[in-house]
Specification:
The complex is a heterotrimer of chains A (about 475), B (about 375) and C (about 120). Chain A has 18 helices and 12 strands. With about 475 residues, chain A is of the alpha/beta class. Helix content of chain A is about 50%, strand content about 15%. In chain A, α12 crosses α17. Chain A starts with a helix and ends with a helix. The chains are: A alpha/beta (about 475), B mainly alpha (about 375), C alpha/beta (about 120). The interface between A and B is large, with 51 and 57 residues.
Amino acid sequence: MKWVGYATIAYFIAMQAYMLFLAVVSAAALRRNHHLRRFGRVGEMLSSKTSPPVSIIIAAYNEEAGIVDAVRSMSIVRYPRFEIVVINDGSRDNTLAALIEAFDLEKVRIPYRPELESAPIRAIFRGRSGVDITVIDKENGGRADALNAGINVARHSYVFCTDADVVLDPDCLVHSMQRVVEDRERTVGVGGNVRPLNGSRVELGHIIEAGVPRRLIPRMQILEYLRNFLASRPAWSWMNSVPIVSGAFGIWKKSVVVEVGGLTAGHMGEDMDLTMRIHRHMLVRGIPYRIVYEPAAVIWTEVPDTVRVLRRQRIRWHRGLMRVVSDFRDMTFNPRYRQMGTVAWPGFVLFEYLAPIVEFIGWFVVPTAWLLGAIDTTALVWLLLIALGMGLLNSLIALLLDESFGYFNSPTDTSRLIAVAAIENFGLRQLTVLWRIRALLGGKGTRRWGNMERRGVTNLAADSR
Amino acid sequence: MPSDSLLQVAVLVIFTVNALLLMALVILKVIHRRRMHDHDARRKSYLGLLSRCLSFPNNTEPITEAIAEDPAFLDALIDMRNAISGDEVSTLHRIVNRHGVIERQRRHLDSSWLLGRRLRAAVALAELGDELSADTLMAHLDDREPEIRIQCARGLGRIRWTPAIDEIVSRFKEEIPWVRVRFSDTLLGFGTKATWPLLAYVKINHRFDHRGPALALRTIAQVQDDQAVGPLLELLDERLHLEVELATIETLGELGSPEALPPLEQRLRASRWEIRAKAASSLGGLGDPSAIPHLVEAMRDESWWVRRSAAGAIARLPDGVAALYQSLDDEDPYAADAAAEALIDVGELVSARRRADQGGSRHEPLLAHMRGKGNS
Amino acid sequence: MSEKKRILVADDSETIRALLQTALESAGYEVDVAKDGLSAYELGSAGGYDLIILDQLMPGLLGLDVITRWHEEGMDVPVLMLTGVDDDRTAVESFDRGAVDFVRKPFRITELMARIKMQT
């Protein structure tokens, strides 16, 4: 009992140390472009006439409220050549009608080459107004299925897969495609920085001012995303082992996506699944490649602001994660997969996937061991403090790394973030653990992408301050 | 089990570091917030100042040394420089020179230790510099920092400093890809003067490297110098890497000289589909309708990309649209599809619908093709 | 007492707004500004302007969208479009929708002023 108790706590400290290691490596990786970010004129500096054209692919299901605004804001992104492809995934509302009206769409008959499988297409539309937009109307098949259809229609060699409810930073394509141009032959994927827009002032599809909401649930997620995107991913990117290029911001070389068969329909973690499959595809064949992460390429998205919606999201995510971990278990400690197999993937599985399980067990084991007198009280207190302290350390590092991006400057924002860093370990984190255990027990069932209650971007922002 | 005192020390260390980081965070945020706010306010006022200077030639508002040294003023200058053109640019330059702004930035680029300041200086020189800055810019083409090298090349391109052309092209070989691409952008600023150095570079290096020469060829295409056609045709006779051959064909298409017709038509029957497709699309740029029959043949190619390229090329040629309408009846359904797609791309469908009510019959076949084949 | 002519300047670039406002006011016009397509449309529709200068790439509604709406509503205030250097399509389409002139960015202030004087 005694050893189990101590082992559990030791696991936690090891996990925090692993996070700390990632954070430090990320800090070093981010330093490179720090001066460019501070300078602020990056968009102009980086634009080039030879930038490769990009197809922005948006999967939309029941988005009549915001789809037109979303597409409009995407149409003025600062990038020389791109097209917008919207897939109406069998919406039951007026998504398609809204698009037809706003962009003066007309039905066209063009050859549709299904390189990737998808649910049947009903019609294809092209826009006649100033925006280069193509809309596919198809039967419902889920997000992955819709994106596959979009990839089939995309005219350019790079595809940018994203969602209908995001707000793009106008320079996000410039920044992310710079990583492609740097090394066109090897770069097959670029992931961007996803930031929660809850609490920010949004107008006309633009972030006027980033902010931190008052409510705890979205606030916690802001910190969580910062830790993930600023204190983990840069490290993985440096090791060319990014396990997940976020579905909200994933730029891929179209030919590679087609080679691996596109996204997996019905998979709840389809973005991670695609990323890992591409890693495997390239590593197994020995093709030199890289999947990078660009922190300066930013996209904003609405995150759940109630416990109920968050719970659904986390259970779904964890189910996806479970399936991916199972599908790719052969990579663990497998030198055939190089850094991914020997360092990054085992670390991920051990400390990110197994963490909730160990923690859950710990809730029972540690108090029991203590009550039985197997663990010394003072030692327990010190160890818990160490684990807590390291957790706080990771959060503070993430907040410091975020400094060079220049968001969240008001005293209210800063204090709210620090506060949530302090208290998230007293309840919020335990909730997420519970949900993940729930997902574990619930098995690997497949479920269609649920419809997160959309409060509409501007409504959210308004009341959260 | 580690001893209690060790644990205590660990806790102490961790929480001390936390406290330090917390302080650093708060201080940085406070500083940053204030700095950003001030910078922005000053920049706005400078925009007003510069607008008045440009609108009133005899404006007597003073630009003090404090203003001239302010990075916000530099930002405002760059913004203004990008908004105007023509004579007003020289007015802006006069203001800039009168107050030693460029001088100061040159000094920063040469001797400052702070990377941020040097970068800002390089951008300032690129955007606002004139011939006097040329020496500094040339010297920093070898700067350690890639962004600075890029900005220097950019600046030299903007002031059209011809001696820089050879320097920039000669660095194609050694440079990292990202910088090379931006260098090639820069060369466009020099116009036709860049053609020969680029051609020379391609001729010498294409056997050893394909990326640099391919990029150089694409740059030649954008420079649009007809003098390049002859040498490019000669180049096609040599044994080329696929990428270099594709770039050469593409460039010939962009330059649009009918001399390129025979070699391009020949390549419509090349063994690699990439070459066939590229030759097809490039024929569209030559403006010679005698290529149409060959392209119609290419629309029956087995590769859909070749078909698409051929159809798109026909659409760009004189009387091409008529030929595409005829192809709608082609017995090969794929060729017909390619023709329809090309017609849609050039807006024929829009015209067709618009003129259908006015009783035009020319577009009827396209509308029929849309309706006739049933639902998609 | 002669009334000042009123001009609406709609552009999301702060620099352009500052520049045009200064230049136009110094030439004796009364100037209002809009930062995005939607407010450009609302202000312009409210009426009272002798000329509207409209940028193409704006958040909310593109310049072309705004002028299309005005065209459909039969608004008769002259509109001058500001377009980017490579943007021929906007220029042509805006003429179809009733624009009286267009100027490419970056522009020469003197030239722009001359064109504005011609329309007012």
